[in-house]
Amino acid sequence: MTVKTRFAPSPTGFLHVGGARTALYSRLYAKHTGGEFVLRIEDTDIERSTQEAIDAIIEGMEWLGLDWDEGPYYQTKRFDRYNEVVDQLLAEDKAYKCYAPKELLDEIREEQMAMGVKPRYDANHPRIIEANSNVAEDAPFCIRFRNPKEGSVVFNDYVRGCIEFSNSELDDLIIRRTDGSPTYNFCVVIDDIDMGITQVVRGEDHINNTPRQINIYKALGANTPEFAHCSMILGDDGAKLSKRHGAVSVMQYRDEGYLPQALLNYLVRLGWSHGDQEIFSMEEMIDLFRLESISKSASAFNTDKLLWLNNHYIKTAEPEYVAKYLQWHMNAKEISLDNGPALTEVIKLVGERCNTLVELAEQSRYFYLDFEEFEAGAAKKHLRPVAKEALELAKAKVEAVEEWSTENLHTVIADVCAELELGMGKVGMPLRVAITGQGQSPSVDAVMQLVGKERVIKRIELALDYIAKREAQ
Ligand code: GLU
Known about the structure:
By secondary structure, this protein is mostly helical. The chain has helices at residues 17-32, 51-64, 79-91, 102-114, 126-131, 184-194, 209-219, 250-255, 260-269, 282-288, 303-316, 319-332, 343-350, 357-368, 376-382, 388-400, 406-420, 424-436, 444-451, 453-472, and strands at residues 4-7, 36-41, 70-74, 95-98, 142-145, 152-157, 161-166, 174-176, 199-203, 226-230, 233-234, 299-300. The protein folds into two domains: 1-99 and 135-240 and 261-268 and 282-299, HUPs (Rossmann fold, 3-Layer(aba) Sandwich); 371-472, Orthogonal Bundle (Arc Repressor Mutant, subunit A). Helix content is 49%, strand content 11%.
């Protein structure tokens, strides 16, 4: 049987890291087995679902590169189908109309609690039986699934092993509300059957729903899929991951300068492992991923590790890949790339020093934009009158360079040092501040090469002006 998995978010907010991890695991399993991955938007809760959230989820999936083979399906477009199955269950007496009003159910619940009994819907309660007999033709009703009264539901979860629920714990669940809308536990089953889902990967908060859903599969004579319920993600303080811990939305990680590959690599390890390997390309994840190796214990989010992975991918990924995402940050900072070197060259030179693309964009600025002022501290320290001679000689030598290469620029600096009998720092640092406007940068000859001859000369002149003004004071 072809494997088919799905990611089925409810569009009530952005795509958060927990959802992204579920989507990743589902997709990895599908790809590992040569199967298919479906995206389904569970928007039956019309009050809480928004188009904005749907767009945000799709944007997050696309940014992560978690593409799907089928969908997105929308539950709100499938109401006719759900009603058809409700009618079938009614006709087979596997579901029934329940007329018991809310007030009555509330009263019974209070009674149960007063008696120390677990509050639940009891189809055999005399007052409910009474409410369901001799009803007026136009009385409002919901539809309940006739859950088996005896026996138990047993399933084997990939993560948690064998799980058993006694049917006596489960009540007759509402499958269609009084207003005619179908409920989550029902729609999910019909969808998973119709879409041919073979493995359901989802959060452990759904474990209690699973036995109810399995009973519906059985009532419909359908095959039950296999289940893998993933543990929660905790913040680094051990509490359930929330906004309080900083970024939770996947798109916020984009904004903060993470590469999708770093976040995916981080998420795959958050609750799954393959020995002590930390770095996984997408191909390796697909190759090595097993549902059986998902960890049972909750995982704690660790931002330092994510930063470490991000730095790893900035350094080692194809510069073209990094450029694609860095470009977004350059645009956000309104740094036009029209006037300057290829972004891939800047990444090769500056990338390894940066943990995020936000830092990398900031450190790429001077390759594309001219500046009028130098960083105050660096200028004060390095653009002093004693540096004037070195900068003037460097400028003359730069002007004479014919082949604009890092090697030749290296020679220029070495020659200035030799002629003026100065140490490297006395020449390199003023040049660095002149050309980058700041006190830190990669090797200054390589920086000069990328900044370009005309700009290098102009910037040395700007630095000399600065020194002249300082001398005049
Ligand atoms: N729509 C549910 C949620 O967002 C997921 C349902 C499922 O995966 O079965 O929590």
